Amino acid sequence: MKIVVTVKQVPDPNSTLSLEADNTISRDKEVVLDPGDECGVEEGLQLKEAHGGEVVIVSMGPERARDGLRKALSMGADRGVLVTDPLLAGADALLTARVLAAAIKAEEPDLVICATESYDGSTGVVPPMLAELLGFPQLTFAKKVEVDGSTVKVHRQTADGYQVVEGSMPALVTVTAAIAEPRYASLKGIMAARSKEIKLLSLSDLGVQKSDPAETIEGVVDAETRKAGEVIQDDGSAVDRIVKVLAEAKVI
Amino acid sequence: MASILVYAELSGGKVATTSLELMTRARELGDVYAVALGTGAKEAAASLGKHGAKVVHVNEDKAFDDYIAEPATDAIAALYEKEKPDLILFAFTPDSREVAGRLAARLGTGLISNASDITSSGGSFVAKVPYFGGAKVASMKANGKPAIVLVRPKSFEVSESGGAAEVKQLDVAVAAGSKRAHITERVVEASEKVKLEEARVVISGGRGMGGPQNFPLLEDLASALGGAVGASRAVVDAGWVPYSMQVGQTGKSVRPGVYIAVGISGAMQHTVGMKTSKVIIAINKDAEAPIMKMADLGVVGDALKIVPALTAAVKARKNG
Q1: CA-to-CA distance for A76 and A68, rounded, in angstroms?
Q2: Using the beta-carbon criterion (under 8 Å), do B135 and A17 form an inter-chain contact?
Q3: What is the pLDDT of residues B67-115, one digit of tens each?
Q4: Where residue A172 sits, what CATH number does that domain have?
Q5: Which one of A123, A160, A164 has the shortest CB-CB distance to B113?
Q6: Which residue is closest to B196 within chain A, CA to CA?
Q7: Shortest CA gap A67–chain B (Å)
Q8: B34 CA to chain A: closest CA distance, Å?
Q9: CA-to-CA dists, residue B100 to A206, B6, B19, B150, angstroms
Q10: Partners of residue A241 in chain B, C-beta under 8 Å
Q11: Residue in B131, B180, B302 closest to A220 by CB
């Protein structure tokens, strides 16, 4: 079974973000492999361990996104493909999906695994776009994935439980953080990753034309903030104060 | 006048509240019609009409209930070719965004996701989108034809405008090729207590709760107050509680009368989903936690002592 896992690097959730002059989020900060994508890589590796085959990591980003790919390779993935091109700076969701679709098509995978959404953008629309462009069904929000022959079955997280969803491969699956605890790369894995292939591709290699962005950022302002209220130290009277606030809000 | 198509999400045969929120705003922006697909679509049309839809396109094929995204994408794409709306609005929910993503790719147009507001200006649509982890808000002009925008639930308050919609059968045959991701079983795990999004009091727990074994303390307080329990992303990712309880950017948006954040530091990821609550109470060991700077009442102390004492006080007051 050939499995493609998409990954990207995101600003370190523990660092402060800053903006570029054109109001896009600065990518110069410390970046890490998206924590959601690590779960996708882990699930890909577990499926390969159970069914055999190959795990290929596909990413789009600046050249240093190689570090993120390298991390996935050190966890055990077989090889990587990175689409990198200055023309892709600030790419919107659809252009991202078109680029990834072109790179993935060439791999002819049985299964594509994506995180449900990225940690930074959180638009959550690249996976369904990708599924459409690949012509694959989408089995989404999976907290469990099973493969049986050419059928893939997932437990799809819902508000009050889950749904069992079945489809034939090739298919695209999105996974939640509940799918699997990502493994740590072993020293052996880190050493092995150094000699694994990461193929670099440009837009022209893929034959993808840059499209006009779906949106134009007209301005960025600070979000409205609430004013701080009163902060009290609990000296035993806090419960009475809270009850008073609840009563004023007429919920008791 | 601009023509706007609202994708009405049905859940359990009923139109989702968040779709009515979209209707309420959309009718200020132009002529609104809606599309409702699957079981209950015809019945939903009455409610959509009351909230401003002039026409509701319906199709009750069960395939819309049982297959993820593709049948709905086929139907809306067909409707788009006929009606050419200027704007298509979706709720930013798991089900709607999967249809929106496929549709945008099929129509070759982009979309704007995760918006918190939409307005029209000089013939185009401008969405406000939480940006930068929620610290900032970006105004984004939609360039797509059609413009496709996904709006976060709870961005608008629902109001009725009266009126009745003309119900039109949407003639679309769902192709076998679109019946692929098949929902074969639905499992309900959470007992249906008070819904998080609809509760007038929400009590959410974070890392400061110490572990999943202490969440029943929050359940007790919630049942005393007739509220619901939520959680921060940190504890959901840690596996303490299910994703369905997550409040925040990648979870649910809530707007209760009172929001009680217990042991939650108040990262932007979380606050973007609860900051429009009417009253916010925070209980935290750390007086410097960001949540303290936005709470109406911040209590610095031990949550594991304060919460049970508060539950007892609320019960005593009810019985007294």
Answers
A1: 13
A2: yes
A3: 999 999 999 999 999 999 999 999 999 899 999 999 999 999 989 999 9
A4: 3.40.50.620
A5: A123
A6: A159
A7: 23
A8: 22
A9: 26, 11, 14, 8
A10: 297, 299
A11: B131
State the CATH number of the domain containing residue B203: 3.40.50.1220
Residues B21 and B91 both lie in one domain = yes
Q: In angstroms, what separates the C-alpha of A191 from chain B's closest C-alpha?
A: 29
Q: Phi then psi for B64, rounded to 5 degrees?
A: -70, -30
**Together in a domain, B141 and B172:** yes
- pLDDT, one tens digit per residue, over A218-237 is 999 988 878 889 999 999 89
**A139 belongs to a structural domain:** yes
Q: Quick one: closest CA in A to B70, which residue?
A: A137
Virtual CA dihedral for B304, B310, B316, B319, nearest 10 degrees?
-110
Decide if B5 contacts B35 (C-beta within 8 A). yes
Contacts of B97 in chain A (CB under 8 A): 124-125, 128
Q: Are residues B213 and B308 in the same domain?
A: yes
Residues of chain B with pLDDT under 70: 133, 190-193
Residues of chain A predicted below pLDDT 50: none
Domain count, chain B: 2
**Which structural domain, as residue segments, surrounds residue B151?**
3-178
Counted domains in chain A = 1
Q: Is the residue at A181 inside a domain?
A: yes
Question: What tokens appear for A245 in the block?
Answer: 């606030």
Q: Identify whether B188 is part of a domain.
A: no
- Among B81, B107, B83, B67, which residue's Cα sits nearest to residue B30? B83
Residue A229 with chain B: CB contacts under 8 Å: 280, 295-298
Picking from A157, A166, A242, the nearest residue to B281 by CB comes out as A242
Q: pTM, whole model, 2 decimals?
A: 0.88
Select from B119, B147, B178 the last residue of a domain: B178
